[in-house]
């Protein structure tokens, strides 16, 4: 009962942070009536459609862990969320996963058409770096740190990161793969932007190199936890809670942790990764958010 209470309180905390992120996203996104209005409406439709805002909250809490007020990193947090949203818009397109719903609403291409959805994703990706660059205007933030963040985020979002993982995922669809290939896919497709979020907040706070490495290692582990649980939820999750159809991995002949490793080994891997992630951040004072984040990701049902 105590664990459930703690997770409930953690989720309330996430919701509070998400409201701050939503307000900042609304500020940093183009106005929907700015010409050409259709593209800006599509960008706002998908970005402001809701969600836990885990990546921007990770940026904020990582900065706070190393002594920087979390409000100061909102531009970077929002930029990373825009990159995440662009990837979702493109993932949902008919040439990718061909999904009709995202976060309980019709996907961008179902509302605006394939071409505008494709361009909305492109626009969010490019606009994101303009927003991240605005962090150099915030008092107490080193412009050199912002440059480092832009370098890191662009790498982790690109062909050596998220896009690389998506590419191998597409190439592996309908083909039997081994555990190492599956780990490559998910460390890049999902894990890279989680690592970039944690690293960026810490870098803007001028964390020392050894602590940046710890946040990277922690991010890799929780990225895998996130993906394994996501794969499990695609099998037995509640569509109403998830806000998207289940069974899409089977429909699209995707390789997942349960299909490659088996259900039981997948669960055991989550347990092992969870303990390792907690051990990594145990060196820090005020690590409650990062400990509870592991529990939340491990036990989430949506």
Automatic annotation (TrEMBL):
> Alphabetically, which GO biological process terms does the record hold?
terpenoid biosynthetic process
InterPro entries annotated for this entry?
Answer: Isoprenoid_synthase_dom_sf (IPR008949), Polyprenyl_synt (IPR000092), Polyprenyl_synt_CS (IPR033749), Prenyl_diphosphate_synthase (IPR053378)
Report whether Magnesium shows up as a keyword of the record.
yes
Any single GO molecular-function term of the entry would be:
(2E,6E)-farnesyl diphosphate synthase activity
EC number(s): the record gives 2.5.1.10
UniProt signal peptide:
none
State what protein this is by name.
Farnesyl diphosphate synthase
UniProt family annotation: Belongs to the FPP/GGPP synthase family.
Note the superkingdom of the native organism.
Bacteria
Sorted alphabetically, which CDD domains does this protein's record hold?
Answer: Trans_IPPS_HT (cd00685)
- Keyword Transferase in the entry? The reply is yes
Give the catalytic activity: isopentenyl diphosphate + (2E)-geranyl diphosphate = (2E,6E)-farnesyl diphosphate + diphosphate
The protein's required cofactor(s) are namely: Mg(2+)
Kind of enzyme, top EC level? transferase
Q: Which UniProt keywords apply?
A: Isoprene biosynthesis, Magnesium, Metal-binding, Transferase
Q: Provide GO CC annotations from the record.
A: cytoplasm
